[in-house]
Design brief:
0% strand; 95 residues; 3 helices; flat
């Protein structure tokens, strides 16, 4: 019985939403088209794309260096950082 009630409520919600939804959809679509057609928005998007293209090689290089260095929760001196998920072992203390 609960399944039928849920399906009935979903159906009613769909019908009511579809009636009001199309009008609201057209409002949102009109606003989006107006914003997209704005020269200021187009200019800003173009600048952002240019900056992203310029910075992409630098980001790629940094990601590659981070990936190749691994993530073993050690500081630059090779000692595990405080609060590390990898506690020091006896062999670390001796070495």
């Amino acid at each position: 019985m609960k399944k039928y009630t849920a399906l009935l409520l979903i159906g009613i919600g769909y019908v009511l939403g579809a009636r009001a939804g199309r009008e609201r959809y057209e409002q949102i679509r009109g606003f989006a088209n107006k914003v997209q057609g704005n020269p200021t928005v187009q200019q800003t998007a173009s600048k952002a794309a240019d900056v992203a293209k310029d910075k992409a090689p630098v980001v790629k290089e940094k990601l590659a260096s981070v990936a190749s260095s691994g993530s073993d929760d050690t500081g630059s001196n090779g000692v595990p950082m405080e609060g590390s998920a990898y506690p020091r072992s006896d062999s670390d203390a001796k070495g």
